[in-house]
Design brief:
Elements: H1 7-13, E1 19-20, H2 27-37, E2 49-54, H3 56-71, H4 77-92, E3 96-103, H5 108-131, E4 135-139, H6 147-153, E5 159-168, E6 170-172
Antiparallel strand pairs: 1-6, 2-3, 3-5, 4-5
Helix pairs in contact: 2-5, 3-4, 3-6
The structure holds flavin mononucleotide.
C-alpha cells in the first residue's frame, strides 16, 4: 500500500528538529534512510556521497572538537574545559548523528556537481526521515574541516564532510519560519 502522505505535505511539514526523545533510531531505520539518500540524482553516476554513522564515542569526540573551537573564545581555563565537556556530552547524548561526506574529485566541475548531488541526497534524508516519523537537523560550519572532527569521524584523505545530520524521534517540532513566497522571487522570462 502506498504512503498516504503526499510529498507536498512532507516538504511543508519538515522542520529542523533540535529536541529528540530518548528513542535511538535502529540500525535498520538508518540503513533504510541512507538507501534513499543514495537514490539522489548525480551527474555521471559518480555516487560521490559517503556516510559515517557515529556511535556515542565518535559523537562525543566530534562534540569535543566543536567544543574546543568554541572554548578558544573563553579566557578562564576551567570555564573553557566546561564548554568542551558540555558540548561533547550534548553530542554524545544525541539519538543518532550521521556525517555525510563527499569524495573530492580533482576536476573542479565534477567537484561542484558532486557537492550539489550530495546535498540532494541530504534533502532526501530529511524528507525520508519525516515520512518515517523521524526528525533531522543539518549542521555545517568550519568545524567540519577541523582535523579533530575528521579524526572523530574517521574520515579518509580525499573526502570532506558536507554536513552533519542529527537524527531522532522529535520531542518538539518548532513552528515554521516565514518564507518569502516563490512567486515574489520568480521572473517569467519570455
Ligand atoms: C546548508 C545548510 C546548512 C545548515 N547549517 C546549520 C547549522 O550549522 N546550524 C544550525 O543550527 N542549522 C543549520 N541548518 C538548518 C537551518 O538553520 C534551517 O533549515 C533553517 O533555519 C530553516 O528551518 P527549518 O529547517 O525548520 O525549515 C542548515 C541548513 C542548511 C540547508
Amino acid at each position: 500500500m502506498s504512503d498516504p502522505t503526499s510529498l507536498a505535505e512532507l516538504i511543508s511539514r519538515r522542520r529542523s528538529i533540535k529536541q529528540f526523545t530518548d528513542r535511538d533510531p535502529t540500525r535498520e531505520e538508518i540503513e533504510r534512510l541512507l538507501e534513499l539518500v543514495a537514490q539522489a540524482p548525480n551527474h555521471r553516476m559518480t555516487q560521490p556521497w559517503r556516510f559515517y554513522v557515529l556511535g556515542p564515542g565518535a559523537r562525543r569526540a566530534y562534540g569535543a572538537a566543536l567544543g574546543a573551537r568554541k572554548a578558544k573564545r573563553v579566557a578562564d581555563p576551567d570555564a573553557a574545559r566546561e564548554v568542551v565537556d558540555s558540548v561533547a556530552a550534548r553530542h554524545e547524548a544525541l539519538p543518532a548523528m550521521i556525517a555525510v561526506a563527499v569524495v573530492v574529485h580533482d576536476n573542479p566541475e565534477i567537484r561542484e556537481e558532486d557537492y550539489a548531488a550530495t546535498w540532494m541526497g541530504i534533502q532526501n534524508l530529511g524528507l525520508a526521515a519525516e515520512a518515517a516519523g523521524l526528525g533531522t537537523h543539518i549542521k555545517t560550519g568550519a568545524v567540519m574541516d577541523d582535523p579533530r572532527s575528521r579524526a572523530a569521524v574517521g574520515l579518509p584523505d580525499g573526502e570532506r564532510i558536507v554536513a552533519i545530520v542529527n537524527l531522532g524521534e522529535p520531542a518538539a517540532v518548532p513552528d515554521p519560519k516565514p518564507r518569502v513566497p516563490a512567486r515574489d522571487l520568480t521572473t517569467w522570462v519570455d
